[in-house]
Amino acid sequence: RMEGFGYYALPTGMEYRGWLWDGMFHGKGELGLPKGGGYQALWDRGVPSQGKYTFADGLEYDEEKWHYCDGYDRRFYTEICSGFKPPGIPQLTNLDPPQIIPKGCYDCGDGFYNPKTRVVVDYKRKFLRNADDAEHEWILRTCRKAWDITEDKPKP
């Protein structure tokens, strides 16, 4: 079994870098996600404690003091870090400029959703999942639609 400090690539694309004991994560280590971000924790026989999740854009999740998108402050993380754009120039997503949505699809945050096929693909068009009824309804109700985006630019 694996022991000591090491690096382990999981079949899901996630990667662990840290201490191992008896084939389990044990001690300080980080579980990295394929698209960036990860979970740093102190592990005890494969169970994390004292952990901290960091998103790919650098935003750190704090269970005790989480104020991001809490209803009172609705800024994107990039707006918190860099400030607002001038009036008349909207920022539609945390990624600026946002992804261009294919015709007939929705941007659901981790990729595009086609309501005809009920399939979510990532931004490189790789299959992620089939949407169940609850996710389908949520996406139709809340996500950006390709046909709502205009090419109009604000007039000087």
UniProtKB/TrEMBL annotation:
SUPFAM superfamilies: Histone H3 K4-specific methyltransferase SET7/9 N-terminal domain. The keyword NAD does not apply. The gene is Morn5. InterPro entries: Morn5. It comes from Polioptila caerulea. One of its GO terms (cellular component) is motile cilium. It is found in: Cell projection, Cilium, Flagellum. Its main location: other. This is MORN5 protein. Keywords: Cell projection, Cilium, Flagellum. PANTHER family: MORN REPEAT-CONTAINING PROTEIN 5 (PTHR46437).
